[in-house]
Amino acid sequence: MTSAQKTSARVNAAPAETPTFPLNAWYAAAWSHEIEHALAPRTICGKEIVLYRRTDGAVAALENACWHRLLPLSLGWLQGDEVVCGYHGLVFDAGGRCTHMPAQETINPSACVRTYPVIERHRLVWIWPGDPALADPAEMPDFHWNDGTEWIGEGGTYYGLRCDYRLIVDNLMDLTHETYVHAGSIGHDAITAASFDVTHTDRTATVTRWMLGIDPPPFWARNLGKPGLVDRWQIITFQAPSVVVGDVGVAPVGTGAQQGDRSQGVNGCFLAAITPATATTCHYFWNFVRTFKKDDEALTRSINLAHVNAEGKGLYDQDVTVLEAQQRAIETHPRLPFYNLNIDAGALWARRMIDRLLADEAQRSAPAAAAE
Ligand code: FES
Ligand SMILES: [Fe+2]
């Protein structure tokens, strides 16, 4: 692609009531380390959910509203593996079934709260907020880089953002923003100068950018530890509906990295699982893992501090300023569309896949709605 003009397209803003996220998908709900034997409320895809770890280690996910008078169950407490409502003492087991009612022996068989399918994998707790009958473990996103074995990183950082989750997908699928948003750190003119390819499958879209024979940015120069020009790569893959994995790194120029031999270089991966909380807020589970200097704990810490730090000057802080301002602007100007450039090609594929999942879901629920 050579001309922004050629591929510019008008995208009309969706009406407010149009769903922006599919429900029939696995979404990261929490890092594993966040969920203990305690009630943890979280809003996932517009649903109020309470999570807790049972005594056998498995994670339970219940609707966070008591069957009786809807008090959030997270305001109650755990009694073994059961949840006691903090208002009138109804007790629910991890399967959502009521096991105790105060001042009566007979338990109404319909007294239950909804439960959600949960899978704990790759150091994350994943939830399926849609139809449980469709929850297929084979559709879990691939996040294996976070398993803590071959790739090393802190394990997981959580952020809550006031923006549509798709804005983060857009942000990660187009790293030309680094040149402007992250000028002075990972930004580099070569990113905007380099051409890129976009490929896709049914559920993934990949943006591949090689920057050959360039000066390495400071982070990569330091970690490569070899003087001279480098070949730099950014291979960013979206997995529908909301996971992005970025394979990034550098190798000394001409040592065959582009052809598949990265042995002379240094390689990292940023891992992003982005989960809608509501249409305008989201959860962002982030990590950066690497295969170099794996025992260097100070480096692990410094990578996290580069992302977010007490001074609010980390890379993440720079992104969040843009993303939340963008969300406010969308709400201020609901009739203004987005326009697309060549650089948006990867994000457009991601959005097409999200739209297709939404259309499938609307079609599946249409007969049921018509029959009501
Ligand atoms: S609201 Fe939960 S027991 Fe009454
Ligand atoms: Fe960024």
Automatic annotation (TrEMBL):
Q: Which domain of life is it from?
A: Bacteria
Domain Rieske, chain residue ranges per copy: 26-127
Keyword list (alphabetical) reads:
2Fe-2S, Dioxygenase, Iron, Iron-sulfur, Metal-binding, Oxidoreductase
Q: Indicate what this protein is called per its UniProt record.
A: Aromatic ring-hydroxylating dioxygenase subunit alpha
Record's InterPro entries? Cholesterol_7-desaturase, Rieske_2Fe-2S, Rieske_2Fe-2S_sf, VanA_C_cat
| Entry GO MF terms | 2 iron, 2 sulfur cluster binding; dioxygenase activity; metal ion binding
Organism this protein belongs to: Segnochrobactrum spirostomi
Please give the SUPFAM superfamilies that the UniProt record associates with this protein: Bet v1-like, ISP domain
- Quote the Pfam families the UniProt record gives: Rieske, VanA_C
Question: Key word Lipoprotein present in the record?
Answer: no
Q: Does the keyword Transferase apply?
A: no
